[in-house]
Every structure is written in C-alpha cells, then in structure tokens.
Amino acid sequence: MLNSAWIQRQLRLHEEFKRAIGPRLEQQRTQAAFGSDLVHQVQAERARFDAFAGEQDIKKALGELDPSKAVYRERDEAEVAFERNRWAKTALVRCSHDLGLGRVRLQWFDDLNAQDPHDYRWHLGRYGAPPWKTWFHDGPCLGLYSAYQPDVIHIKTSDDPRQLVFVVAHEARHAWQDRQYGMPGVRTAAHFGGNHESEKRWSEEDADAYAQGVLTEFGHN
Fold first, then answer.
1. Looking at the domain covering 70-217, what would its CATH class be?
2. DSSP string covering the chain, please?
3. pLDDT value at position 17?
4. Which of 16, 107, 125, 216 has the maximum number of C-beta atoms within 10 A of its C-beta?
C-alpha cells in the first residue's frame, strides 16, 4: 500500500525544487535563444516592475491611492500618554466586568502624521516588513470593534477623557451585543427579520445609551 504522507512529501519536495531552479532554467533558455544582452534587459525590466508594484502597495497601505478614505495607523501603548491610557483602561475594566466580557484589550490608533510615510518606507526597506498596520474607514472613526477580533477594542487617541470613556464603553457594548445575540448578520436574520437598517439603528442606539450611562457614572456627564 502506498503511504499517502510519503507521496505528499515527495510532491512538496518536487514543487520546492521547481521553485528553486525555475528562474535559473528560464534564464538559461532565454540566454540560449536570444543571447545574454536580452537576458539583462528582461531582468532589468522585471526589477523595475517589481519596484513599481512594491511602491504601489506602499501607496495603497498609506492611503495615497484613494484620498477619499480616512487612513489610520495602529499605535503602541508606549506611544500613548499615561493619562490617556489610564482613562481608557479604567473604563475598559469597568465595562468588561459589568458586561461579562472576560479579557479584552485596547488597541490604540491615530491619524497618519507627516513623518509616518517616511518611517513606513524606511522600515519596510530595512527590515522587509511594515512597522505597524494601517487601515481605512469611509469617514472619521473614533473607535472600532470587530467580531473577528472579539478580544480587542480599537480606540483613537484623544486628549478628551469624556471621549475616551464614551468610546470605550460604546465599543464594549458592541462586544456584548455580539456575545449576547450573535454577529450582526446572524442577529439581523434572527431578531430583525433580515432588516439590516433596523439592526444597525438598534445596535448604535443601545451602545450610545450604555456609554452615556458609563460616562455619567464616571462624572463626565
């Protein structure tokens, strides 16, 4: 009986071998047919295309290809002032306990500044990876919760303690909604007869009402 694991391993090794020698064989075939000058031209053109494609990827990540989108970048906790961290974390601990969310962490983000595109390109060129994630939104965004990251609440930096407390509580309530009633698509079908607008309106009004209550409790009403 043939060993399927052995067969899979041989196929994988064959693919790795083809990837390893493929460019060399292509160069040899091209050189034999057209001569070394054309080979160098083809290689130079390919390098220029790769550089262009790489720059396009960078511009896309930095939002330079679609100025209509708001572009944000994640920030480490160390980049955020101590007082901002304290306000937001205090609110998160209170909401997490109140709503039974378990372990939830904050992920800070902010607008791109004038230095960020330079830092992004420099870090990518030196280390082969971006220094931080960027993401897009159709308009201004103060906070974000996604069912695909159920243990993370994204919050925009701010000097206003009222805004930080309100946004953390608002997004924490969205996390509670998902845990209580299922993801938006699921609860739209189950509780709102498939009406997405009704579900969205309920979701936002419920989150706002809860956040306002937390804000009042914190003495920021």
1. mainly alpha
2. ---HHHHHHHHHHHHHHHHHHHHHHHHHHHHHHH-HHHHHHHHHHHHHHHHHHHHHHHHHHTT-S-TTSEEEEEE-GGGS-HHHHHHHHHHHHHHHHHHT--S-EEEEEEE--TTHHHHHHHHHHHHSS-SS-EEEESS--SEEE-TTSTTEEEEE--S-HHHHHHHHHHHHHHHHHHHHH-SHHHHHHHHSTT-HHHHHHHHHHHHHHHHHHHHHHTT--
3. 63
4. 107
